[in-house]
Amino acid sequence: MKNSINSGKKDFQAYEEFSGLTRIFHWIRAFAIFGLMFTGFYIAFPFLQAEPSSTPTHFLQAYVRSWHLFLGFALIGVSIFRLYLFIFDRQSHPERISFAACLSPKIWIDQIKVYLFLGKHPHIKGAYNPLQFVTYFALALLVLIISITGVVLYYNVYHNGLGAILQTFFKWFEVMCGGLANVRLIHHIATWGFVIFIPVHIYMVVWNSLRYPNGGADAMISGIRYKKDIKI
Questions:
Q1: Residues 72-126: pLDDT tens digits?
Q2: What is the model's pTM?
């Protein structure tokens, strides 16, 4: 979908780069990841203490753990739907064709020059440049790792119902890792991967938006990106 916009000097085309569902899933995942990081670190080191009471009513650790589980399954569910949209959704075509740019050494070099303030932004047909595409692919792998390790940790606490079903499908991963202690360690290390990714991601989004104000940061809110209208 595109519309023509006249800025007074140049004509631009407004493209819907990200569909509504893609944007909704992005923000749900962002909220879930932030919540999982906070609750996860608290579970590992409970630095808050409930007010002492003679009755067993203050279950702060249990409440935090419950939120961690809820957000974890939300992240898994949304990530599955997000993958479905990336592969099959017609409106996600700009994301899929971004892979082609990863195969071009020239675009890689030109894009690195942009980040070093040594060149102009290369013409890219897709939604992401090569560095963005590779980074988001690595993020998807990180989500996969932290999800599987989280599932293993879940069924080792909740042995019946859903836990029993998940154990049937994911016990192999626990065995492959060499035991539950290693699974917990991998889960913790993957969390630090998100801690590193988030500030870098925010910085690069803001950087691109300021240097190329054609819909950068707000594209994940409005879904719109603007391109110069080439008239023949």
A1: 999 999 999 999 988 998 888 888 888 888 888 888 998 888 888 888 877 778 7
A2: 0.83
Torsion of CA 75, 97, 113, 30, to 10 degrees: -10
Q: What tokens were used for 51?
A: 């007010």
**Token pair of 98 as six digits:** 């971004």
Domains and CATH numbers, the chain: 21-48+58-213 (1.20.950.20)
Closest CA to 140 of 88, 87, 179, 91: 87
Q: In the sheet that 224-228 helps form, which strands lie side by side, from edge to edge?
A: 2-6, 11-16, 224-228
CB-based contacts of 222: which residues, under 8 Å, 6+ apart? 215
Structure tokens at 169: 């499908």
Residue 73: what residue type? F
Neighbours of 30 (CB within 10 A): 13
In the chain, what is the straight-line distance between the N-terminal and C-terminal CA atoms, in Å?
Answer: 20
Tell me which residue has tokens 């879904």: 223
Residue type, 182: N
d(CA 142, CA 52): 39
Q: Are 225 and 15 in contact (CB under 8 A)?
A: yes
User: Locate tokens 């590193």: which residue?
Assistant: 196
